[in-house]
């Protein structure tokens, strides 16, 4: 059944009236059946109505069923097409399947077989639709576009992700807690050929060495007390996809040895087992510590470090990319306003100045939590200095200390979309540089050509200042 209990629509096309009526009677309980005596008539019906299944005879006067299927699928690629054919035309029917038809049936049609095949085809289509929608949701949630930032400090991050994501190289992401390491890991996965495979994450610091080993490699029944059945580990779960090891600096030396072997040989054994298991994964790891320094201190294997450190991404703390705070604030305000049924237009200049002046020891995660709290507790249409948590107000002072380029008159606290905030940032940079586009582009971390293109889109002619 389609959404809301509505029956799927099946179009039966056959020049023989008895065949049409017989199939209509057989399918009428499960489907909304429409009939056409010719391919030409069927095309008219397809043009004017949503059809889920096309069931057509092969040989008919005028246009044949194979041509009908080709034209119908050109108009509606998601249409499920079945070809009815006599035994002597099976080669043609097979050719139709190769060209996109879902299946074929020989006449006289076995109605029980037809019902089973139609149901199976609809379920497969619905599952593919759900998977496609899920992939789109994941792209929106975890694609590179969701890593909000336009500051010079973030541009190298975006470039590395775009260049290295399609490769098979292992990735090491370093940065303070709360900077968004897992979000970058997701972006690597979503932009790779493995995006249809699983993304499996494990936080290494949360588990003891023995539990971590079992979680990573799985275990056999009876391997230890409580192992009542064989259990797959994360390496098996991530087969064909990406495995993300967060806080990899915390893993025990014994687990480091096993991890090194997996990276070198792509095989491992479950805990308590002798069977060699092969794995096809891309390893993405993250740490909030300086892994190279841990190697020098003898706390992390050097050979494993070199295996992990093929593509290195270091995410700057939020205090080093304060230019992104207005964009992040807008992003989080939109997110939490929608979730909580609020209508928040933005931040007042004073509130924004306070948030920009704060050093954010918890980085983007802390900013996100603060904005959520401010949105939930707000009573007005804009977030004001009164909505800023007291600890932040006390830390930066009552008025706040605006950073260069973020004064209230710049307009960065105005309401509007991310695009409008970006526009305000560009105009503020130009004002700061007295209209010098080269210097403004450098401040913004974009090329002069990109700045010209954006100004043209805003209607600002060359040689003019906004």
What's the arrangement of secondary structure elements?
Layout (H helix, E strand, L loop, with lengths): L8 E5 L3 H11 L4 E5 L2 H10 L4 E5 L7 H11 L4 E6 L4 H9 L4 E4 L4 H32 L12 H10 L6 E4 L6 H10 L8 E5 L5 H9 L16 H4 L4 E5 L6 H13 L1 E3 L6 E3 L3 E6 L3 H6 L5 H7 L2 E4 L10 H15 L9 H9 L5 H15 L12 H7 L21 H15 L4 H8 L3 H10 L9
Parallel strand pairs: 1-2, 1-3, 3-4, 4-5, 6-11, 6-12, 7-8, 8-11
Antiparallel strand pairs: 9-10
Helix pairs in contact: 2-3, 13-15, 17-18, 18-19
What can you tell me about this protein's structure?
Helix 2 (39-48) packs parallel to helix 3 and helix 13 packs across helix 15 (363-377). The protein has helices spanning 17-27, 39-48, 65-75, 90-98, 111-142, 155-164, 181-190, 209-217, 234-237, 253-265, 291-296, 302-308, 325-339, 349-357, 363-377, 390-396, 418-432, 437-444, 448-457; strands spanning 9-13, 32-36, 53-57, 80-85, 103-106, 171-174, 199-203, 242-246, 267-269, 276-278, 282-287, 311-314. A five-stranded parallel beta sheet has the order 2-1-3-4-5, with helices on both faces. It has a five-stranded parallel beta sheet with strand order 7-8-11-6-12. By secondary structure, it is α/β, with parallel strands linked by helices. The protein is extended and about 85 Å long. The longest helix has 32 residues, at 111-142. It folds into three domains: 3-134, Rossmann fold (3-Layer(aba) Sandwich); 143-316, Rossmann fold, CATH 3.40.50.300; 319-432, Helicase, Ruva Protein, domain 3 (Orthogonal Bundle).
Describe the structure concisely:
45% of the residues lie in helices and 12% in strands.
């Amino acid at each position: 059944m389609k959404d809301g209990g509505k029956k799927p629509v099946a179009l039966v096309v056959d020049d023989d009236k008895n065949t049409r009526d017989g199939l209509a009677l057989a399918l009428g309980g499960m489907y909304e059946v429409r009939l056409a005596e010719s391919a030409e008539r069927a095309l008219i019906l397809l043009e004017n109505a949503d059809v889920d299944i096309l069931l057509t005879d092969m040989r008919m006067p005028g246009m044949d069923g194979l041509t009908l299927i080709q034209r119908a699928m050109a108009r509606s690629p998601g249409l499920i097409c079945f070809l009815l054919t006599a035994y002597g035309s099976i080669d043609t029917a097979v050719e139709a399947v190769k060209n996109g038809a879902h299946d074929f049936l020989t006449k006289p049609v076995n109605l029980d077989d037809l019902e089973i095949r139609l149901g199976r085809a609809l379920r497969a289509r619905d599952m593919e639709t759900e998977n496609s929608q899920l992939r789109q949701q994941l792209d929106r949630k975890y694609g590179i576009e969701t890593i909000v930032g336009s500051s010079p400090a973030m541009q190298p991050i975006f470039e590395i992700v775009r260049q290295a994501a399609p490769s098979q190289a292992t990735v090491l992401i370093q940065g303070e807690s709360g900077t968004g390491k897992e979000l970058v890991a997701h972006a690597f996965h979503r932009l790779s050929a493995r995006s249809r495979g699983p993304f499996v994450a494990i936080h290494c610091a949360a588990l003891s060495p023995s539990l971590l080993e079992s979680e990573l490699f799985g275990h056999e029944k009876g391997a230890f007390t409580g192992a009542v059945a064989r259990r797959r580990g994360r390496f098996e779960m991530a087969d064909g996809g990406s495995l993300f090891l967060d806080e990899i600096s915390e893993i025990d030396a014994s687990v480091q040895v096993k991890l090194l072997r997996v990276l070198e040989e792509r095989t491992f054994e479950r805990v308590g087992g002798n069977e060699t298991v092969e794995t096809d994964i891309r390893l993405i790891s993250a740490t909030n510590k300086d892994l190279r320094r841990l190697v020098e201190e003898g706390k992390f294997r050097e050979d494993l470090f070199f295996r992990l450190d093929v593509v290195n991404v270091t995410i700057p703390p939020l205090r080093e990319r304060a230019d992104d705070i207005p964009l992040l604030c807008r992003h989080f305000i939109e997110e939490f306003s929608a979730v909580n049924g609020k209508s928040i237009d933005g931040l007042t200049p004073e509130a924004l100045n306070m948030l920009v002046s704060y050093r954010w020891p918890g980085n983007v995660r802390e900013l996100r939590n603060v904005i959520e709290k401010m949105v939930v507790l707000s009573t007005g249409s804009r977030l004001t200095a009164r909505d800023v948590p007291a600890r932040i107000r006390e830390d930066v002072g009552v008025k706040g200390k605006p950073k260069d380029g973020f004064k209230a008159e710049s307009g960065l606290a105005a309401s509007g979309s991310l695009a409008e905030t970006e526009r305000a940032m560009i105009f503020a940079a130009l004002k700061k540089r007295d209209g010098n586009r080269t210097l403004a582009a450098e401040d913004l971390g974009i090329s002069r050509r990109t700045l010209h293109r954006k100004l043209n889109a805003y209607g600002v002619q060359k040689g003019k200042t906004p």
